[in-house]
Amino acid sequence: MNSALIVACLRAVHASVLANEADIESLDRAIGDGDHYLNIRRGCEVLVAMQDDLAKQSVSGALNAIGMKLLSTIGGASGPLISSFFLAMAKSLKDNDSPSRTEFAQAFAAGVESIKQRGKADVGEKTMLDVLIPASRLLIKLDAEGVPLPALCAQLNAEATRNMLATRDMIATKGRAYSLGERALGHIDPGCKTCEVAIAAVCAELLKT
Asked: What's the fold here for domain 3-206?
């Protein structure tokens, strides 16, 4: 992992978010507040615009700059949560200019834990954590087992998709859909869809290296 790869992954996520606009927007209209997609797209756009500057920074410096920019760019509840993810990753990788796969997995776990603590949420509450927590746990496990990158990415993608789809049968106890109660049943969480899209995009980019 290096800053150039981080930038490449940002571009890939941006492109994938645009390609999945219709799906994400329809999910958010059903059980969200209608601005999730716009906020995510805006965040992606400002980060891609920063790519030249990010590429010149250390890994932790780039991740910290991403987190700080998103904090001032993404509105709603998503901004502080996603920002905390990148800031926690930056802290985990401080002074590490070339983190290993294991170190990246640990940093990803730190980022997810930061979202969990800030949002005071956990698995089973119909939020983005229903994708992120299982993906983080699986990444740590597969890395420890030395699973080759193609197989690791395939399993991560499958896990993200499976857990995203599972939110269809959940009643939200946190997040924007909380007030809907049982009316949220039958709808996939839009934040989980966005996370699934992002994980797939990053995996695809990593497989190019």
From this structure: 1.25.40
